[in-house]
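Example 3.2
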Amino acid sequence: MADRADRADRVQEAGWPDSEKTAQEARRRRLAAWRASERVMLRAPMDRPMGERLTALAADAGSVYDMDEHPDLYGDGIVAELERRVAALLGFPAAAFFPTGTMAQQVALRSWAGRTGNSTVALHPLAHPEVHEAGALSVVSGVRTVHPTREPRLPTAEEIHDLAEPFGTLMLELPLRDAGFVLPSWDELVATVDAARERDAVVHVDGARLWECASHFGRPLDEIAGLADSVYVSFYKSLGGLSGAVLAGPRELVEEARVWRHRYGGQVFEQYPAALTALLGLERELPKLPSYVAHARVVAAALAEGLAASAVPWFRVHPEPPHTHQFQVWLPYTPDVLNEAAVRQAEETKTALFRVWSPPPAALRGLAFTEVTVGEPGLEWTAEEVRAAVEEFVTRVLEARS
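Structure, written as tokens:
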């Protein structure tokens, strides 16, 4: 408790705005409730204290890399080894490590623009560069975007064929996170890629969460990645890494990407902690993802059953069944009400069913949604336990509204 009080004092001394103080206090309360909970769907690495994470890394790192080796310098050593392993896993001749996925993707798309002679990228308006990167594609990289569809799914082959203007690159986010972690069928994906090729475009995959797509497609990772000309993958979203990403593709593209990485400020002196956690994720988490995906379908069905039997006037579990081990739940209440109910449930019952509820776009006022991720702890939940937790959660929602 003392360290929490110390942090609160530092917030007060920093002179932060009241809204920022309130947000920090709410986050500390959530973290404390999640850490104390005996039942959770996910124990995210970022929820753990720094000392605990560093101790675990020191204890585990020797299982994936020789700790007597020297640390990396500007991308050699363990970072180069990580690049080799990911390139082989995805079936590409080369790969380059980046400190962030945003930088990796910026570099990939600007490099393809130069190589194709066309700086227009076709992508979904809910794709990460359009929603979460503050317009960096156009402001920093000089890339223009067009949207084949506004439907909350990946574009179809017909939409690619019918796009009114030429484009040099088609970017596909697999899965499309902000639409609900949705994926097309394998045949639909192949047809969309083929349609882009027919228009003389290259295909780049935003595979930040590509690792968990294999179950849905029924194909190995290298076959999925092999549809594209280049692929970016992340290490912290599904594999539990500290940070970092890899861009994989043809050797010439990757060598050019290394030059741009330096220009963008991504030539980091030492990155071995991130590389070690990435290797640990590939070793330990990647083989478990199919079981998470399978059980997410059980959890999603039980959530829908529990909400249907409850007093809520409306709900949506999307997609149903989930395409990966992540999916959305929507309810007709404000985020404040739902977040209070979720934290109270965790505090009072030691069961954390939901994490953070967020507001949707302005056009959908009166609703809120949360993203459910089924990790290793989620495998312990039975459908009956999920339905019981839903009943307890809805009770607290109704109490929070009164």
